[in-house]
Amino acid sequence: MTVNVVCLAGNVTRDAELKRTTGGSSVLVFTLAVNESFKNNATGAWDKRPNFFDCVMFGPRAEKLAQYITKGAKLAITGRLRWRSWETDGGGKRSKTEVVVEEVELMSHGAQQQQAPQQQQQGEFYDADIPF
After folding, report:
1. Mean predicted lDDT score pLDDT of the chain
2. Collapsed DSSP state (helix, strand, coil) of residue 35
3. N or C: which end of the chain has fewer CB within 10 A?
4. What stretches of the chain show up as alpha helix (H) in DSSP?
5. Rg (CA), the chain
6. How far apart are CA 3 and CA 54, in angstroms?
7. Beta strands 93-106 and 74-87: pairing type?
8. Domains assigned to the chain
9. Residue-wise pLDDT tens digits, 62-120
10. Which of 25, 91, 94, 88 is nearest to 56 (CA)?
11. How many CA atoms lie within 13 A of 29 on its CB side?
């Protein structure tokens, strides 16, 4: 049995980019920064180190979410890892591992937060303005 599940919560590093495949399908691309806490042996204090994850989402939900996934937005995502490789125009080989996002929970709207405030009730996220 193979298990490929990723759950991350972090901040979007820049506005998501909505693209189209040659077949016309929607593809949403963004990067999520997730802090990792570690104890600094030199100082004894707890420090944070960011990890950056390239994320991709497909289809109509990607189109709807594009306007909400903006720089600074805090997201919780669930998805799966995918490795892909390609050849550059110069003949070099490249590869990367990315998260194919299946579920998204908007924990804040980043730059749009002042325009569309969220309502929270005892740890529950609710935002009536988001059409999913």
Report:
1. 85
2. strand
3. N
4. 60-65
5. 17
6. 20
7. antiparallel
8. 6-126 (2.40.50.140)
9. 999 999 999 999 999 999 999 999 999 999 999 999 999 999 999 986 654 444 444 33
10. 25
11. 8
Mapped onto helix, strand or coil, the DSSP state of residue 9 is strand
The residue whose two tokens read 């709807």 is 64
Residue whose entry in the numeric block shows the structure tokens 């759950």: 7
Q: Which residue has the tokens 């049995």?
A: 1
Confidence category of residue 129, pLDDT binned at 50, 70, 90: very low
121 or 60, higher pLDDT: 60
71: phi then psi, degrees, rounded to nearest 5: -50, 130
Q: Would the pTM count as exceeding 0.85?
A: no
Pairing of strands 93-106, 46-58: parallel
Helix (H) or strand (E) holding 43: none
Structure confidence at residue 8 (pLDDT): 97
